[in-house]
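Morning. Coffee machine broken again, so started the prediction first thing and wrote up yesterday's gels while waiting. Chain of 392 residues, entered below exactly as on the submission form.
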Amino acid sequence: MGSKFRFIVTTLSFIALTAAGQNKPDFQSVDSLTYKYYLSNEWEKLIKEGNNAIDNNIDYKYLRQRIGYAYYSKGNYIQAKKHFEKALAFDSFNDFTLTYLYYSYLSLGEDEYASLISAKMSDELRKQLNIRFFKPIESVDFEYNYKFVTSSLRSDPQYFHIGLNTILGARFSLYQMFGHYNQTYLVQQFGGYRKIPDTQPEYYALLKFAVSRHFIISSAYHYLNPTYDQVASPIHLGMIDISSGKGRFNLGLNVSVLNTSSYTVRQAGIRTVISFTNNVHMYFGSSLSMTFKRKEDHIIFTQTAGFKVYRNLWIEGNVTAGNFTDYHDHEAMYVYDFIDPTIFRTGITGLLYTGKHLSLWTNLSLEQKEYNSNTNYHYNQFSYLGGIKWKL
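Came back before lunch.
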């Protein structure tokens, strides 16, 4: 009985080892199959065969290029970027790798990294792709925001800005924006109400420096000149932001100082983003900021979630909680220095990328505000925003 049992176990083990050996890919079969799938546009089969080969320690430039191109063709730019970066490690100056890694970065909105990759290209390839290291006007954007207020003591605020981006080299870019905000307040005085206008022209500049393919340092300056009841109170805001991205993860840190003639506000923040691209294209982001003003310290938390709903159309939901007084977000582009504090905001954003040149976005939000004269009373604002960006 014992000898028969040992014979059966030995036989089954031999069969299992033989089958495993037969299933283990070899270089010649991998190269032949993946090239065949590449030529016939069978992306799923190519990806499966290629990833299986990598799992079995078969790895080389053309394999990474083919897998990267398969993911790129399917619109999975995060995975495409990953494999083209691996291909670049095998050959730092291959035109095919550089081209599609460049386009993968652009498709992910990582223009600074794309510009850095273009520096490795030959002059002929850059000319072919119409890439220049200096562009006085690389893109122009316009944004308009109208808010409906539920309080009879506040008019509906309006805001707009126009911006342009300049490419200053393979590593540097400069974005400049001119904006304007206006609203009217009704303030009770001497038994009646008096209208007080609140206007705010502003200028914003953001300089970005791509240190490497996964590391960016940004510096921003924002000048605002709010005029409330014909009294101007200029604001100067300076910010430094450090961001690093690798694979699915992105981490950012920022510090800033906001100065007025009567007080100073310091802000520090951290943000994280994680992306998923296997079955569903989506991302989740969180940010935590603290503002320090005299003896008033506030914590502001934001949670976002974005989903790709159709081709180049993305939907993002967001919730922000905390006292927004003199808080800023989006690399200090938006500064909440309003008379009435915002204490909560939630909304949904739609983003549409229509080809290489045009991007459109819209946002619908609900904001909860406090009266500056009495924080025990609240009112709501419904925000409607639309924007357009054109790349030249």
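The CA atoms of residues 196 and 245 lie 46 Å apart. Going to sketch it on the whiteboard this afternoon.
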